[in-house]
Amino acid sequence: MTRSKSNVLRQPAAARPRPAAVPSPRAETLTEQAYRAIEEQIVTLRLKPGDVLSEQMLSASLRFGRTPIREALQRLAREGLVTILPRKGILVSDLNPRTQLLVLEVRRELERLLSRAGAERATAAQRAELARIADGMDRAATTNDDMAFMRLDREMNQLVIEAAHNDYAARSMKLLQGLSRRFWYMHYREAADLPLCARLHANQARAIAKGNGEQAARASDKLMDYVETFTRATVAV
Questions:
Q1: Residue 106 sits in the same domain as residue 185
Q2: Does 118 score more than 90 pLDDT?
Q3: What is the pTM of this model?
């Protein structure tokens, strides 16, 4: 035993096993930061449907240069959250339940696919993050904390997309997520059960974190069932 330990200690440094390098998180570009800031204001209705925006106004209020603001607005236009009117300005797009139901038809299929794929392909670090988000969703359900729920929802959506490792599904889903969050925020006080919705998100996140593809797909369907019920209820509110 002593000789064996001594031999290990005398190994040259290059021959000893090295711990795996931990990748450092990628820093957000200025465009990504500007996009996130504007998107959150639109989703949370600080910028309301029908509001007219300008690059100059957003640059001054958010303290970003005109180029990242312009690029962020172009992305928001692709996602349907704003409409760019040449030589007139930028219009925050309108909302209605019937259009949202069409969004949900597509989102249901993508959510199921991404949840199943994420359960199969997520890294250990992504599974740990999903478990953390699930715990946060449980806390948001207990405290009825709408802003905590909204931010965790956005974080979870992005993480599930990354965990699935499917660029084609990711591009499609990114076009729908902001529209869905904004519709939720506009109507949840009148028509939604936030604690129930947060718990359904927690169930989905945990199933993906545990690597159970079929359970993740079922949890996704249950969440989409609830979101569709909520959307239809807004028509009568």
A1: yes
A2: yes
A3: 0.74
